[in-house]
Write a sequence for this structure.
């Protein structure tokens, strides 16, 4: 699959999240994640974006354990191209590990 398809899935997930349909949002984030991991590998910033978005959905659901779990799966080795929010999560996670 192509990265543009992953972007479309990500955008669809954002809409479902805004509508409060969290299970659909997570379903589409997972589709986007599968494509991005296959295309770019697990340590790519675009993979971190998906994990960040999934963490926010879990947070919206009040499932803080799963939110932290999704956040902890974000690759943090390469901060280039990450948003401020993604860098924050990665930095916080890195700090906790120290």
């Amino acid at each position: 699959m192509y990265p543009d398809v992953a972007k479309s899935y990500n955008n669809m997930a954002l809409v479902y999240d805004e509508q409060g349909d969290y299970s659909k949002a997570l379903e589409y984030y997972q589709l986007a994640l599968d494509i991005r991991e296959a295309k770019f590998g697990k340590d790519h910033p675009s993979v971190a974006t998906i994990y960040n978005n999934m963490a926010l959905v879990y947070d919206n659901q009040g499932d803080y354990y799963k939110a932290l779990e999704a956040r902890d799966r974000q690759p943090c080795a390469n901060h280039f191209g990450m948003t401020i929010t993604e860098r924050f999560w990665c930095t916080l996670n890195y700090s906790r590990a120290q």
User: Anything to note?
Assistant: The chain has a mean pLDDT of 81.
